Amino acid sequence: MKIALGVTGCIAAYKAIEVMRGLQKAGMSVQVILTRSASEFVTPLTFESLSAQNVITDMFQPGQNMDIHHISVAQSIQLLAVVPATANMLGKFAHGIADDFLSTLYLSNPAPVLLAPAMNVAMWNHPAVRANVEILKSRGHFFVNPEPGPLACGMEGEGRLAAVDVIVSRILEVLRTGESMAGLKVLVTAGPTVEDIDPIRFLSNRSSGKMGYAVAETALRRGAEVFLVSGPTSLKAPEGVRLIQVRSAAQMKETVLQLYPTMDIVVKAAAVADYRPTETAKQKIKKSKDEMILRLSRTEDILETLGREKKGQVLVGFAAETERLVEFAREKLLQKNLDVLAANDVSNGVFGSDFSTVHILSGKNETITLQDQSKLAIAGKLLDLALAVRKDRCKIQDA
Length: 399
Fold this sequence. Notes:
Layout: E1 2-7, H1 15-25, E2 29-34, H2 44-51, H3 69-76, E3 79-85, H4 87-95, H5 101-108, E4 113-117, H6 121-124, H7 127-138, E5 142-143, E6 147-150, E7 156-160, H8 164-177, E8 185-190, E9 195-196, E10 202-203, H9 210-221, E11 225-230, E12 242-245, H10 249-259, E13 265-268, E14 275-277, E15 296-298, H11 302-308, E16 314-321, H12 325-335, E17 340-345, E18 355-362, E19 367-374, H13 375-398
Parallel strand pairs: 1-2, 1-3, 3-4, 4-5, 8-11, 8-13, 11-12, 13-16, 16-17
Antiparallel strand pairs: 6-7, 9-10, 14-15, 17-18, 18-19
Helix pairs in contact: 1-2, 1-8, 3-5, 4-7, 9-13
């Protein structure tokens, strides 16, 4: 397993050597990236001697330009850890500034990110830094927060780099999370469905598919075999996901029911049409001076069918409401025999956003609220809860 270890310009940079050694003892391959400022505190030679690998210090370093190096590194690692992470680098990451190898690698990296900040206590508590930290947390990044104590500047307070063993343990914990769904089959539905009126017109909804695609990506990162049944969207499926594209509610139902018996976890994030035209015209319906009456028929409730036919699968659903959110969501959870349900208020234009506020309900009569979180972070929490349900179910079966 390979980790990229970014080291930035801070007096605590020397502790990154101990972090690297701890990871090596745990059997990890470590690719070190030193920023120019970090090289003022620790030398590339020190890391090269101990890691037996070239240390990356520059975007255009001789000998590393036969391929697009930041892309090849990003595709080869299972985690990007930055120890220590300065206020400057947190700001670059938060706002997409790519002006050196490490910040460019960050934008190219699909793997989990762990940040261990270290800085003066006043800097750590500055509103700009706190805002950047919240942005990065909303993307689902992991943090090992600085500890209180005496600082190199002579001040005392929260800002010193966390203990090496704490950082190494957290990195290994995050990597284990990356294997937490190994061997499991996960089915995710995403996007809208489209119900044709005639060859030109159709009924649909505003779903972008981003939530379902985030769940698929997160499950894939955790080692699951992922099947993504998607209605029409402009999104690109994560590489490695088994994408099955459908158009109508009937097509989605047929595909999902075929896959359902072999699945371990099913996340129904698609916005499936409740109604379809009773008849689809074979030719374009010509406009006239009279009003047009469109007759609609109910589509079958896929989620309700899955709940009724459930045989050990963990079933996660979504509820989009404009009023009495938690009340209606709780009714849906019980009526459709769901294990977990995420409810969000769609009256304020959330469609297409990368962030959302959701209320997550479970069969234990618990409600967890995630406020203005990224859809990747929400996906992670939903899968955590799904795994917990599955673990409890397995314990009961084994008893």
